[in-house]
Write a structure and sequence with these properties.
The protein is α/β, with parallel strands linked by helices. It contains six helices and four strands. Helix 1 links the parallel strand 1 and strand 2. It binds 4-nitrophenyl phosphate (4NP).
C-alpha cells in the first residue's frame, strides 16, 4: 500500500516544495507518494521560488519541475497525512476539514522532529540564507518521517 503525504504552506512556492522534494528524496517511491500544496492561491501554476530551487539544487534535489497548486478539500480524501509548516497553515487547513478523521491527518511538520521550534518560518521576505535555514529544519523533520516509513517497510 502506498502512503500519501501532502506538504502544505501558504504560497506553495517556498517551504512546501522543499518539503516535497526532501521527503521524496528519502523514501522509496513504491511505498510513499509525496505532493505539496498552498492554502493561498497567489502563485498557481508557477514553479517554486528560485531561492528554494537554489538551495535544493545545492543538496542534490531537483524541485524545478514542481508546479504550484492550491490545497483543496478533496485532499483530505486523497492523502493519509497532511504536514503543515506553521500554525497559520494549520488553522487554514483545519478550517476546511469536515470531520475528526480529516483533522487527525493534519500535523505541524516540525512536531516530527526534536527541534525546539514547532514552526517552519516563512522565508519569502528573507535572503538566500533564510532558505538555507528553512531547508535544514525541513530536512530534520523529513529524516524522522522517512525513518518511520523505512522501519515500517522493514518490519
Ligand atoms: P511559502 O512562502 O508559504 O513558504 O510558499 C510564501 C510565498 C509567497 C507568499 C507568501 C509566503 N506570498 O504572499 O505571495
Amino acid at each position: 500500500m502506498v502512503t500519501k503525504v501532502l506538504m502544505v504552506c501558504l504560497g506553495n512556492i517556498c517551504r512546501s516544495p522543499l518539503a516535497e522534494g526532501i521527503l521524496q528524496n528519502k523514501v522509496n517511491p513504491d511505498n510513499v507518494f509525496v505532493d505539496s500544496a498552498g492554502t493561498g492561491g497567489y502563485h498557481i501554476g508557477n514553479e517554486p521560488d528560485h531561492r528554494s530551487i537554489n538551495v535544493a539544487t545545492k543538496y542534490g534535489i531537483d524541485i524545478s519541475k514542481q508546479r504550484c497548486r492550491k490545497f483543496k478539500v478533496e485532499d483530505f480524501d486523497e492523502f493519509d497525512m497532511i504536514y503543515v509548516m506553521d500554525k497559520s497553515n494549520y488553522n487554514d487547513v483545519i478550517a476546511l476539514s469536515r470531520s475528526n478523521s480529516d483533522k487527525n491527518k493534519v500535523q505541524l511538520l516540525l512536531s516530527e522532529s526534536d527541534l525546539e521550534i514547532l514552526e517552519v518560518p516563512d522565508p519569502y521576505y528573507d535572503e538566500q540564507d533564510g532558505f538555507e535555514y528553512v531547508y535544514h529544519l525541513i530536512d530534520k523533520a523529513c529524516e524522522e518521517i522517512a525513518m518511520k516509513f523505512n522501519a515500517i517497510q522493514d518490519s
